[in-house]
Specification:
alpha/beta, single chain, globular, two-stranded antiparallel ribbon, 443 residues, 8-stranded parallel barrel
Amino acid sequence: MTRETIVIGLGTWGVGHLQPTLWKDPRVPVDASINFNYYRRWAELGEAGLLDFLFLADSQFITHHSPNHEINRLEPFTLLSALAPLTQHIGLVGTASTTYNAPFNLARRFASLELISGGRSGWNVVAGRDSGTAANFGQSEHADHDTRYRMALEHVRVVQGLWDSFEEGAFPADLDTGRFFDPDKLHRLDHRGEFYSVAGPLSVSRSPQGQPVLFQAGGSEQGREFAATIAEGAFAAVRTFEESVAYYSDIKRRAVARGRDADSVLLLPWVTPTVAPTTAEALELARHHFEEDHQFEYLLAQFGRDFHWHDFSVYDPDAPFPDLSDQPDLVTLPQAIALVGRARREKLTLREAVLSSAGATTFRAPAFTGSAEDVADELERWFRGQALDGIKAVFRTEDDIRAFTEHVVPILQQRGLFRTRYEHTTLRGNLGLKVPENRYSRN
């Protein structure tokens, strides 16, 4: 590991991701997910704390069981474009599906956000897991897991090719000669692949950071392969130091096997820091949040997502896990296959399977819970122990952001583990990532 400082991104979920009662907190606007000023304040707090980026999740399909923040929320490109002129340094990272976006349109939207923000955008690449999305886009069926990842890789490569349409210096805009642009520096892509045929060129030039930073979260075998191939920031859902070390090592190894520098992909676990004046107070606060967020009825509804939103409330929760063998279409996602296999092997009831899947069988304080010193110590331990390059931190309220940026960040700064000022104007610069060379300039 050659990094000297920790990456810290700020995840925002509106009225709460996996936090079903958060909307009742008087410190959170009940319309947070569609409240522009809520997002603006989070971006400003993140920038005041010198954090690397603001992250927005997204999905294009909902049911009445969807989490609060998904039921009613703003579209990422519109929101991030509105935040761009109100911020100067913090990165702006949005989620977009490769399955349900045409490469040309997505490339153009991100390229526009790049120029509006001065090179601070990032794309969280997702293949899309909710099968119901297909019907929202006039498709009869949702592509299978393997196909979606093959589509995703081709999609990303097409988009990257379109982002290279203009070489540097393509627009001399010379008033004396009357020459606005150099046509020799504009290139068609003429891609013909398994899933896409895209001529190009893109009608937007490159930004100061060359291309948006690519992020991805993948726990399955295909997801890890995809992250190692294209991701520059890999999000991970890990619960322990040991899990994170294993994930870190695996992704770095896979990246190197693909001819990439291990430092070209940053491992960023998704974490929920809980900071309080004392360790005891932080543990009590974390326990309170755990009890609020793990109500069985909510967990049961969310459990159905991996089974294409199957309604598990029709079964007795204390009976053996239901036999779904007569409904094979429900058990196609890797997560569902693994859950069913485990339930059978361990003879779990439905309740046990749901609670175990959510990590809710017993309270266990999440990582990065404690006093400011505790949290800083743990971040340093994970960083130096090659368990992470940084984190995507998700907080419940603005007070929680301030507790972290005003108390934990200064300790990290004193230890030389976090910046004391923004040194670059682009997201790539602040993350320590190289600017991708334009493929046509290279030739």
